[in-house]
Amino acid sequence: MARLIRNKQVIPTNLLTRFLNLPSSLLTHHHTTSKRSLQTLAYEEIQANPNKPYTHTALILHGLLGSARNWRSFSRNLASSLSTSSCLVWRMVLVDLRNHGKSTETEGLDPPHDMVNAAKDLGNLVNSKGWDWPDVVIGHSMGGKVALQYARSCANRDYGENIKLPKQIWVLDSVPGEVTSENSDGEVEKVLQTLQSLPSMVPSRKWLVNHMLELGFSKSLSEWIGTNLKKSGEGETWAFDLEGAVQMFQSYREMSYWSLLEHPPKGLEIAIVRAEKSDRWDADVINRLEKLASQEGNGYAGKISVHVLPNSGHWVHVDNPKGLLEIVAPRLKSLMS
Fold it and tell me: Could you tell me which residue ranges the AB hydrolase-1 domain spans (predicted)?
């Protein structure tokens, strides 16, 4: 994982669909605040009705090399669709996971950089702010496994005896088991290793884009990589902690949550969304999930639901945000009845 790739190999253009985190357009009728605190994750809050106290909370978790801002548009639309009653107000908390976004500047997020500590950061955030425990956690890609770890840790009372288990965990296009070399095409590793081979400080965004083009990356991917820079002295550096992200990806690959899906805690629904055109799913995994979802509960355990998002690749919130909303919103509304 950590070794550098220094040869100028041509990178397939379909890498763009695996890594492109498109910033979404902003809707002016919503309220967004950005807050942070030392020792806790950076986050944003979104409410459709900012002048009313919220009654329900959903945490939104991005994927590898992403950030909270990638999910603003979808979260605004979700908050709006749930605000059908004057007495029910949903708050969306968009989190920058450790080593990502503004959380790279947060002190106290020490190694190991793995799924367990990434989920623990969420528990620390809720505890430090004195919030009620979230009703729902929605995680995309790597964030989906962080959400599963959060559910496991809540069930184990790892964040305190007064912990409240979420009612729903949403795992968006993230395989719950281990990701081995046999069921991975290695594209993620190639991107991370190539980024590691670049200087940590570059003269400018233009220089970086031109350099990436010379390495064989597509123009779109090169320009996206350029958006992940921030000013640092006379040059620019990454807006994420690359080495920390590499460690998180390794943990993502190694962790398996099949035991959680086979025995979900009572009162919890784990909803898996598989993108129809995603290349991350093999037949055995799909069959195993569908079998779990078809089992009738005995009243002493939670449940599993599986959903297929049509006309979408891995980037579900970009490829088919309307379809994703139509899957998620009705299930969240059921919590309010």
Answer: 59-325
Q: Same domain, yes or no, for 192 and 160?
A: no
Identify whether 80 is part of a domain: yes
Closest to 309 in 3D by CA, of 280, 272, 268: 272
Nearest C-alpha neighbor of 195 from the set 228, 151, 147, 152: 228
DSSP state, residue 265: P
* DSSP assignments along 17-37, one per residue: HHH--PPPPP-TTSEEEEE--
Under DSSP, is residue 305 helix (H, G, I), strand (E, B) or coil? strand
- On whether both 151 and 201 belong to a single domain, the answer is no
Counted domains in the chain? 2
Q: In the chain, at which residue ranges do the beta strands (DSSP E only) sit?
A: 31-35, 43-47, 56-61, 90-95, 136-140, 168-172, 201-202, 229-232, 235-238, 269-275, 303-309
Spatial CA neighbour of 147 closest among 168, 133, 178, 162:
168
Which residues span the domain enclosing 224?
182-247
CB 5 within 8 A of CB 194: yes
In a domain, 7, yes or no: no
Residues 164 and 66 reside in one and the same domain: yes
Q: Which residues, 6+ apart, have CB-to-CB distance to 278 below 8 Å?
A: 173, 312, 313, 314
pLDDT, one tens digit for every residue, the chain (337 residues): 333 333 334 444 444 434 444 433 333 345 555 554 447 899 999 998 888 889 999 999 999 988 898 899 999 999 999 987 667 889 999 999 999 999 998 988 999 999 999 999 999 999 999 999 999 999 999 999 999 999 999 999 999 889 999 999 999 999 999 987 665 555 677 778 878 888 888 899 899 888 878 877 767 667 767 777 888 888 898 888 999 999 999 999 999 999 999 999 999 999 999 999 998 899 999 999 999 999 876 667 899 999 999 999 888 998 899 999 999 999 999 987 6
Q: What is the pTM of this model?
A: 0.84
Say which DSSP state 70 is in.
G
